[in-house]
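FAQ

Q: What does a record look like?
A: Structure on top, sequence underneath. For example:
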């Protein structure tokens, strides 16, 4: 059964006195736990990243685990609290609920389980401490693999012995290829949905990712040389052999394209880079300079005229080349407005000293050239007024979209190249604007979605790319903006923002706070529901009128909830989705029991959420059935609610199948099923929806293939459920097997049936009357 948040009645004083000695130890532990919040328990700041939270928890696990403290009777309870803190803070949705409502906003039930000490010591976070290996999760995976860089990613599972055997090799390989390609790792224990979506069904699975191309799986023996050999074949940058006849024309051609040259000079003394090292350099410098080599035994005079780099180490050569490349174009207050008026720019705002990533930023122009995004920088020390007018007070990257200086979006992701490139590409296509006091839509007539956030908040950063996706799908219908509450405190206070992210929709005089999944689909569904509400918000008066006074045959599903209740929040988007699926069949409402507490108590609501179905019997207005199912997703709730509707289909026997379907004068659509078949049970309510949709046009019937095996065998049924159309074609008998419909969606099946009957109309009209 799914969890609910129970309302606690205050115990009489006498009972507390009786049980106090028995609960002394537990209460002491509870006081210890409640005295600190989850961030304090783990020893991290509220700005901590998921990786920092994981590291902090691992350190605590190694010292606080009951396996290491066998003499401490409270060790189990203490570690349960630390484990709970980790489970909540590593999850973006749970972390937001905790930040907003505290522990009362979470699902209260805990299973009391955790891993052994050995697991935390040897299996937990295999690559967290490796600088050359980038740990990716669901939030940044797509941005990484679509950045334009080559990624070699290790999908692993913490309990997989082969994964642990590979780890030392993967670390050595990552050090050798550092800077040449990106080496990543995905923990499929923490990112199960991501791994399943990518088709990962064994561990470890090693894949090369290149933007716009299918991933390539490594299937060889997992040693360092094989991994290097495999990955090098994807570095396809051309290395040019230069000689007296082409060297100057090649150099001039590259210069005209804005590219320099890195040339290695080979002589009979052996001071030449190995081919593999040259290829690595070509990959590291792709798009920045062209790479070539020259045989100095044949072209000695030309070789003597070039500047030499006194190293054969690929990383040292790379660093020297990057240092020699020109810096990003400097924009000043005099040129800023004119430059940004008609072109798209990615701007680096700096405050004096260059950060460690400044040289890497020189590669941005090469990555974004095909996207027609120019790259520049602004010195906020020299042009402080310009930066202050944009409310930029610290180093950052921002995309200006070619519509002037006020239409821009600031990057709040990781300060790494792949993340910045992905952000720039997404931002220029999206319609999200960074807001401030000057452009905040407090009195605008057009609808706006505003995301109040803090840059340090991980759920906030995860939501930003979803907002960009939603803005593209709602272009022209709704505008999107983000407001940084660490800068604009007064604006956020005016709208009583207490947790991040808080997403609010301003529609004229109406203001609606978004509650639901932090995804583009969730936002779209919420907005659609605002335009055309599927759930009726009930108060005591309307509840009495519509539920207690419902018409005969009218069925209502009602959710009694409290805004602070974690399971209630998780149910909200599913409840709205269920209401849309039930549109026209069952009415759906909700009651806020925090606002109408006494009313809910009068209705005997004792826990949240309380889901009730009031059947279509107006003579018993107080009668209801509570939902006690384990799953609270839209489809499970819909199936439960539809089970209360009167059936619109009929059960067929071998005799009625022959007389009504094969020999009758009606069109039929049939569901061939088996009672033990899970997909059949899932499809059953959908078939009832179909039967009601086609009522008056096509009759709907069901055949139990376990009870009537021979009938189904003669009809050619080989799988369950199977949907068949049996159209009436006049005196000509129906075909025994009917016409197969390959769908389990009521809308699709109904459309298919109607289209097929429309095709058959000319045949029926052309038949003589005595054949009809």
């Amino acid at each position: 059964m799914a969890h609910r948040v129970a309302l606690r009645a205050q115990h009489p004083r006498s009972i507390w006195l009786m049980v106090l000695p028995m609960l002394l130890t537990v209460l002491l532990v509870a006081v210890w736990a409640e005295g600190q919040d989850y961030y304090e328990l783990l020893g991290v700041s509220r700005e901590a990243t998921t990786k920092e939270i994981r590291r902090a928890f691992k350190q605590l696990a190694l010292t606080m685990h009951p396996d290491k403290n066998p003499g401490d009777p409270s060790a189990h309870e203490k570690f349960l609290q630390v484990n709970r803190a980790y489970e909540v803070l590593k999850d973006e949705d749970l972390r937001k609920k905790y930040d907003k409502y505290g522990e009362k906003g979470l699902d209260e039930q805990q299973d009391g389980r955790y891993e052994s000490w050995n697991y935390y010591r040897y299996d937990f976070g295999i690559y967290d401490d490796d600088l050359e290996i980038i740990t990716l999760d669901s939030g940044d995976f797509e941005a990484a693999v679509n950045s334009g860089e080559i990624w070699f990613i290790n999908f692993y599972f913490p309990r997989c012995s082969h994964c642990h055997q590979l780890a030392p090799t993967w670390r050595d390989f990552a050090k050798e290829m550092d800077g040449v390609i990106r080496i990543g790792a995905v923990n499929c224990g923490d990112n199960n949905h991501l791994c399943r979506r990518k088709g990962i069904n064994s561990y470890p699975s090693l894949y090369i990712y290149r933007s716009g191309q299918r991933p390539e799986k490594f299937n060889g023996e997992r040693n360092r040389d094989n991994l290097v050999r495999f990955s090098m074949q994807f570095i396809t940058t051309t290395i040019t052999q230069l000689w007296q006849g082409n060297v100057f024309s090649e150099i001039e051609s590259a210069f005209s394209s804005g590219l320099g040259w890195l040339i290695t000079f080979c002589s009979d003394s052996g001071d030449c880079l190995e081919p593999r090292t040259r290829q690595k350099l070509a990959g590291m410098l792709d798009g920045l300079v062209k790479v070539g080599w020259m045989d100095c035994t044949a072209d000695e005079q030309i070789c003597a005229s070039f500047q030499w780099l006194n190293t054969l180490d690929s990383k040292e050569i790379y660093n020297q080349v990057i240092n020699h490349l020109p810096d990003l174009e400097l924009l000043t207050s005099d040129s800023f407005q004119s430059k940004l008026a008609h072109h798209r720019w990615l701007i680096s705002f700096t405050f004096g000293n260059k950060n460690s990533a400044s040289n890497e930023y020189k590669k941005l122009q090469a990555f974004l050239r095909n996207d027609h995004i120019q790259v520049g920088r602004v010195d906020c020390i020299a042009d402080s007024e310009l930066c202050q007018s944009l409310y930029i007070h610290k180093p950052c990257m921002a995309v200006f979209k070619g519509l002037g200086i006020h239409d821009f979006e600031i990057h709040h992701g990781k300060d790494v190249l792949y993340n910045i490139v992905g952000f720039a590409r997404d931002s220029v296509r999206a319609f999200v604007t960074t807001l401030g006091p000057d452009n905040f839509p407090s009195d605008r007539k057009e609808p706006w979605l505003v995301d109040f956030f803090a840059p340090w908040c991980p759920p906030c950063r995860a939501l930003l790319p979803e907002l960009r996706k939603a803005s593209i799908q709602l272009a022209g219908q709704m505008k999107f903006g983000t407001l940084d509450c660490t800068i604009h405190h007064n604006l956020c206070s005016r709208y009583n923002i207490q947790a991040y992210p808080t997403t609010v929709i301003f529609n004229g005089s109406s203001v609606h706070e978004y509650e639901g999944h932090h995804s583009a689909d969730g936002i779209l569904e919420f907005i659609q529901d605002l335009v055309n509400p599927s759930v009726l918000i009930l108060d005591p008066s309307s509840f009495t009128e519509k539920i207690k006074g419902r018409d005969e045959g009218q069925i209502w599903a009602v959710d009694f909830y409290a805004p602070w209740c974690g399971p209630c929040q998780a149910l909200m988007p599913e409840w709205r989705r269920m209401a849309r699926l039930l549109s026209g069949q069952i009415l759906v409402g909700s009651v806020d029991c925090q606002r109408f507490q006494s009313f809910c108590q009068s209705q005997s609501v004792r826990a949240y959420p309380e889901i009730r179905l009031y059947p279509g019997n107006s003579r018993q207005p107080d009668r209801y059935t509570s939902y006690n199912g384990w799953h609270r997703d839209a489809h499970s709730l819909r199936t439960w609610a539809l089970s209360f509707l009167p059936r619109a289909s009929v059960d067929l026997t071998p005799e009625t199948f022959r007389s009504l379907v094969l020999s009758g004068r009606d069109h039929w659509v049939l569901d061939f099923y088996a009672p033990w078949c899970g997909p059949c049970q899932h499809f059953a309510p959908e078939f009832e929806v179909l039967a009601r949709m086609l009522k008056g046009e096509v009759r709907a019937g069901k055949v139990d293939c376990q009870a009537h095996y021979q009938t189904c065998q003669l009809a050619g049924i080989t799988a369950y459920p199977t949907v068949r159309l049996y159209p009436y074609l006049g005196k000509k008998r129906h075909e025994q097997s009917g016409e197969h419909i390959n769908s389990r969606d009521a809308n699709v099946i109904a459309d298919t049936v109607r289209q097929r009957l429309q095709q058959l109309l000319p045949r029926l009209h052309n038949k003589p009357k005595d054949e009809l």
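Q: Is there anything notable about this one?
A: The radius of gyration is 33 Å.
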